[in-house]
Design a protein that fits this description.
With 245 residues, the protein is an all-alpha fold. The protein is built from 10 helices and no strands.
């Protein structure tokens, strides 16, 4: 019973973060849940939970989605995912996570102490960030940071940022779930068992996160919260790479 309560609590908190800011579910939940569950369980479970919760966010906020940016991001990410998978066989995973985590930390601190962040006016550079997302996603399942940075540099409004990122991750998660289905990852009955218990907690957190997001009307304040969350994510990556979590 303690295990069930633990997973419900973690899923609720991570879903609340994800619903509020548009990212962070896998980045935060994976390191924490991996302390108590094997990757054979949480690997297929996390994308299944995410797709369930994010579908609600995407459908309700579809008018806010920046589809032009999404197309460029998804196409370039899809092209670079196989390269990332290939590189994962030869590169040092811990080293890459430390490098990526350090970059996220430096970028976050810079934007937290600098009054004016850089601004990208159009989608010209979307393919670059999508390629980085696909590269890191294919290699180490870390597709979020490059796209989060891109959304920040575009200075989207909080609702647009939240839903656009959700839609991007939603599309990538479909590919991940299809891969798990192909690998017969869902044959483990525990995955369905944990999903049924955690799903209600995720559904409850979604509207609460949306409400919190609606209160953040100042883009500068929203960006500040995003960078703080990214800062935490960067440290989580490094701690995970060093074996502290």
């Amino acid at each position: 019973m303690e295990t069930i309560l633990f997973i419900i609590l973690i899923v609720f908190c991570c879903s609340l973060i994800n619903s509020t800011f548009g990212f962070g579910f896998a980045m935060v939940s994976m390191p924490i849940l991996s302390l108590y569950f094997s990757l054979e369980i949480i690997g297929p479970l996390i994308p299944l939970l995410f797709i369930a919760g994010s579908t609600i966010i995407v459908v309700r906020g579809r008018k806010e989605i920046q589809y032009k940016s999404i197309i460029s991001l998804v196409i370039s990410a899809s092209l670079f995912v196989p390269i990332g998978v290939y590189l994962s066989k030869y590169a040092d995973e811990s080293l890459i996570k430390i490098i990526l985590g350090s970059f996220i930390i430096i970028f976050s601190i810079y934007n937290l102490i600098t009054p004016k962040i850089p601004y990208i006016k159009n989608d010209r550079y979307a393919a670059i960030f999508g390629a980085l997302s696909g590269l890191f996603g294919g290699a180490y399942n870390i597709s979020g940071p490059p796209v989060v940075i891109y959304g920040s540099l575009r200075q989207w409004s909080p609702p647009t940022f939240r839903v656009t990122l959700q839609f991007y991750f939603w599309l990538l998660t479909i590919l991940i779930i299809c891969s798990h289905v192909y690998m017969n990852s869902y044959q483990n009955s525990k995955i369905g068992y944990y999903f049924l218990y955690a799903f209600p907690a995720m559904i409850i957190a979604v509207p609460i996160g949306k409400k919190i997001n609606s209160f953040i009307t100042n883009p500068s304040a929203f960006n500040k919260y995003v960078y703080i969350l990214m800062l935490i994510s960067g440290f989580l990556l490094i701690f995970k790479a060093l074996g502290y979590i």
